[in-house]
Amino acid sequence: MDIKSICCIGAGYVGGPSMAIIAKYCPDIKINVVDINPERISQWNAKDLSNLPIYEPGLKKIVEKCRDENLNFSTNMKKYIEEADLIFISVNTPTKTKGIGSGQAIDLKYVEASSREISKYATGKTIVVEKSTLPVKTAQTIKSILDSTAKDKNHLEEKTFSVLSNPEFLAEGTAINDLENPDRVLIGGDDQEAIDKLVSIYSRWIKKTKVLTTDLWSSELSKLISNAFLAQRISSINTISALCEATGAKIKDVSLAVGMDRRIGKHFLNSGPGFGGSCFKKDISNLVYISNHYGLFEVAEYWQKVLDINSWQQSRFVELIVKTMFGTISSKTIAILGFSFKANTNDTRESPAIYICNKLIEEGAFLRIYDPKVKYSQIKKDLTSNEKENSQDWIVSNSIDESLNNADAAVFLTEWREFQSLNWQNISKIMRQPSWVFDTRSIVNLEAVKKSGINIWQVGYGN
Ligand code: NAD
Ligand code: UGA
């Protein structure tokens, strides 16, 4: 039987966009995205599409087209699990914050809760697909939970489950393009009929040669390792940015020269304030945890270093800012340009801006923060100093100029396009002299800043 109804548990950065794309290419399939968070669901249902819970270029248009046709957002888990032939689990998988494995292992409580809901409400034969990033062998846990009700003698109707792994590789900010033109789609499983059904969905818009099928454990592990390799490149180039600063070599030239070797490749060689986002840190921490669990201590140490370098890059930036500004930033005004963890998203999870801003505040600076997409309420949640009411440590500015007015320094933390062509002559007139630019992404026009008389430091560029 063909798939007629899909349910996705988790209406987040993955569940929302990935289901919107399936809805776009499969108009004959009903897609119901469910979540325990009613606020998130009402944002997905907002009449004004600029109030969707996530900002992602191109997403609004697809939601506008498919919502109320075959794409539906709801909190009614029971109804849509009951109806579904195929269920994606797309819930968050954060790092454990207490107990065994705290700070490293993945907390599977949301995955477990979803599996219990599925096992309670599903009917007939249901394909359950892991879309969340999960530790290798989680499919076994999910299957045990699901099978516990299938075997329950009190259930009159027999239910059966098939578990597949189908990790998501989209990156925020380019999610729509990544979903429409992925490098590959990975499906792991041992039930060929279920695999074929999932392949047939992706085949509506993706070439079959790009759909790779494997066993469950290889699929689960490949997702973790893809993220680990990407993060490793960032830590590698960030160590070299410090070496460039020390020697006078230029990081962009080094990245270009190295990346032109086809065996290395040009992508993911931009040095910056370290990787942020909800996944790299948690996934590599998990890799470290799993490696230790299997007694592979050298493997664990190797990947731990990728995380250590990421933290080091951020702390060295803070030290550099303080040192450059005559050893103190107490009572100085610093404009923070960009708060999201990368451009084209409103997501601030693990954003380098959080650590850097908190440290600058600790050093006594007053921050004026400008980001084109991150809201005040989110920044307030992220900055610890504002646990005290009426804190005077920072404010949000509504424009770049407002943040720079009378500021002693500007720290560029996100590579938003609008930061890349500023009028530095005009800016030099509104900043307090002497003034500094700290460009942690090397995106501003170096010559124009120098010409304006403002001091500039860029990541990976020595004097
Ligand atoms: P998210 O926090 O944005 O969304 C998860 C959603 O799941 C939340 O809205 C939450 O309320 C909901 N949820 C949690 N428990 C639930 C339950 N029991 N029933 C119903 N809803 C529940 O997370 P995300 O960024 O979408 O990430 C989801 C998974 O995808 C993670 O495993 C992550 O590692 C992986 N992933 C994320 C990205 C990304 O770019 N964000 C990319 C690839 C993979
Ligand atoms: C990343 C991966 O790219 C996705 O393939 C994966 O699906 C996803 O994680 C996930 O599993 O969550 P994402 O975190 O959304 O996607 O964004 P990236 O483009 O990978 O950027 C991550 C961080 O690395 C950002 O802070 C970014 O600024 C930084 N980065 C990226 C660099 O510092 N230099 C680079 O060259 C590239």
Brief rundown of the structure:
With 463 residues, the chain is α/β, with parallel strands linked by helices. 42% of the residues lie in helices and 14% in strands.
Q: How would you characterize this protein structure?
A:
- This protein is an alpha/beta fold.
- It is built from 17 helices and 14 strands.
- The chain has a six-stranded parallel sheet with strand order 3-2-1-4-5-6, with helices on both faces. It has a six-stranded parallel sheet with strand order 11-10-9-12-13-14. Strands 7-8 form a two-stranded parallel ribbon.
- Helix 8 (192-202) links the parallel strand 7 and strand 8 (211-214).
- The structure holds nicotinamide-adenine-dinucleotide (NAD) and uridine-5'-diphosphate-glucuronic acid (UGA).
- The site of uridine-5'-diphosphate-glucuronic acid (UGA) has 20 residues, from helix 9.
Structural class, judged by helices and strands?
Answer: alpha/beta
- Indicate the overall shape: elongated
Our measurement of the CA-to-CA distance between the termini, rounded to an integer number of angstroms, reads 67 Å
**What's the average pLDDT?**
95
Oligomer: single chain
Helicity level: 40-55%
The strands making up the biggest β-sheet line up spatially as 3-2-1-4-5-6
Major sheet attributes: 6 strands, parallel
What radius of gyration results from the CA coordinates? 24 Å
Percent of residues in beta strands = 5-15%
DSSP summary: helix tally: 17
Low-confidence stretches: none
For the secondary structure, the number of strands is 14
